[in-house]
Structures are given as C-alpha cells and as structure tokens.
Design goal:
Mean pLDDT: 86
Number of helices: 4
Number of strands: 0
Largest sheet: none
Helix content: 55-70%
Structural class: mainly alpha
Shape: elongated
Strand content: under 5%
Low-confidence stretches: none
Radius of gyration: 16 Å
Order of helices and strands: HHHH
Number of domains: 1
C-alpha cells in the first residue's frame, strides 16, 4: 500500500484460492486440465503477483 494513500478497493474481482487447488483429487485436476482451465488458473495466479510490483512502482514515482 502507498504511504498515506487511502486503501484500494477492487470491486468485482475474483481470485483463485490456491489452498482449494491443493485438495482437488486427480480426476478433478485432470478435468480442469482437459477443459483448458488449469492454464488460465496458473496465468491468473502469476498475474496476481504483479499487483505488488505495480504498487512498488507507483510508490517510487510518487516519492
């Protein structure tokens, strides 16, 4: 979070909870792979890491 900035609220955004992926059985996991969903989930999880980088950039430019 930016120093002194109000909290950021992202409405309507969903995210995959990694803990729930861990408890999928083999058949469920295979179904997600076959339907092409797992690739999207992996990309989604990686993209979430970019939020921290974007905040750091914004903080650096604000300083």
């Amino acid at each position: 979070m930016l120093e002194g900035a109000p909290p950021l609220n992202l409405g309507g955004m969903y995210r995959v909870e990694e803990k729930k992926l861990e408890v999928l059985n083999a058949a469920q996991h295979k179904t997600l792979i076959r339907k092409g969903v797992m690739g999207r989930i992996y990309v989604h999880l990686i993209s979430l890491e970019n939020f921290a980088r974007l905040l750091a950039r914004k903080s650096a430019t604000a300083a």
